[in-house]
Amino acid sequence: MNPILGPSDRVFVLTGAGISAESGIPTFRGVGGLWRGHRIEEVATPGAFASDPALVWAFYSERRRRASGARPNPGHEALARLERALGEHYFLCTQNVDSLHETAGSRRIAHMHGRLDQSRCSRLGCPTEPFDDANAYPGVEVIPRCARCGALVRPHICWFGETPFELERILTELEACTVCLVAGTSGVVEPAASFVRMAGARGARTLYVGPEEPANAGAFQEVRLGPSGVVLPEVVSSWLGTRGGRPDSERI
Ligand code: BV8
After folding, report:
1. Atom of ligand 1 at shortest distance to CA of 189?
2. How many Å apart are CA 111 and CA 15, to the nearest integer?
3. Which of the chain's ends, N or C, has fewer CB atoms near its CB within 10 Å?
4. Three-class SS state of 204
5. Could you tell me the pTM of the whole model?
6. Nearest CA to ligand 1 atom 19
7. Ligand 1 atom 43: residue of nearest CA
């Protein structure tokens, strides 16, 4: 698809773990959905944290360490370029908890599943805000407690069974988009997996980019198979032209 975007067109982008794969951050499926033999769905849950906070913090500490050494790849950079060209006609929703989109220059972004580099109080209703935290907590005896209420500190992550963050803002942007570009996600986890169907039902043009068909491939008008670090720069260049900058009002 080479959308002809007019001045009123808006692009909604959804990314998943696959866009960080070429930066050396393993995807969930890439490791068979397992971590030290545990299914991700068993570790990334409130129940897992309640019963074994040390195990959950070991999982996130390892991912913090790995993400801290990662650099954005051409896929992240292509999306940042698209944002510079489209301005407020562009919005990025990511399922990822790493900060590679921001490091590449993305600013109009929502992390619907939270941030690896932030923690928060684990007590529902505690008014303490999430805070920046890049620390690793290798053992239960070093897990910090909330200064206000004394509850254990947890990763600021949306776990399975919890409500994703910034949904109102995300759905407002999704409602307004005329092009929905999805990259690097298996299309399994809800509600993100339904975004493309919601956009398509309103007549938006839809495109998937990744090396294999996602589970929701049938909801896309076009699937461009290949690594996002290779295909996204091609898509963005074809939309913006090699000169970059704001596209012509008639055609990009
Ligand atoms: C909610 C934070 C209610 C943790 C994550 C039964 C049916 C339907 C739904 C459910 C169900 N049972 C339960 C549910 C709901 C559940 C769900 O969807 N479960 C799934 C397993 C069935 N969802 C929830 O619980 C969500 N909450 O529903 O609340 C609600 C709903 C609406 C409104 C209000 C309330 C919360 C889900 C969030 C869970 N947390 N992350 C963490 O990161 O540690 S999800 C986790 O999976 C990650 O965020 C990850 O991003 C996400 C999705 O995975 P992908 O990103 O797709 O990664 P994956 O490894 O699966 O795939 C990688 C892809 O990359 C592949 O396609 C591969 O081909 C591709 N790839 C590989 N290399 C490259 C590449 N692509 C491009 N380039 C490459 N080089």
Report:
1. 18
2. 10
3. N
4. coil
5. 0.94
6. 189
7. 97
Beta carbon of 164 within 6 Å of any ligand 1 atom: yes
CB contact set of 241 (below 8 Å; sequence gap of 6+): 247, 248, 252
> Which run of H or of E encompasses 14?
strand 11-15
- 156-178 pLDDT, tens digit per residue, is 999 999 999 999 999 999 999 99
Number of C-beta neighbours around residue 42 at 10 A: 15
The pick from 160, 174, 181 for probing ligand 1's pocket by mutation, whose C-beta has the most ligand atoms within 8 angstroms, reads 160
Token pair of 210 as six digits? 């990744």
What are 73's two structure tokens? 């790849």
Give the position of tokens 């998937």: 208
CA of 209, closest atom in ligand 1 = 77
The residue behind tokens 């913006």 is: 240
CA–centroid distance, residue 167 to ligand 1 (Å): 15
Which of 225, 159, 191, 210 has its CA nearest to residue 29? 210
pLDDT band at 14 (very low <50, low <70, confident <90, very high): very high
- Binned at pLDDT 50, 70 and 90, residue 248 comes out as very low
- For ligand 1, pick from 22, 25, 76, 185 the residue to mutate: most ligand atoms within 8 Å of CB: 185
Backbone angles phi, psi at 175, to 5 degrees: -60, -30
Atom of ligand 1 nearest to the CA of 187: 57
Residue nearest to atom 7 of ligand 1 (CA): 190
Please check whether residue 157 is in contact with residue 114, taking contact to mean a CB–CB distance below 8 angstroms: yes
Q: Rounded to an integer, what distance in angstroms lies between the CA atom of residue 229 and that of residue 226?
A: 8
Count of other CB atoms within 10 angstroms of residue 225: 11
Ligand 1 proximity of 45 Cβ (cutoff 6 Å): no
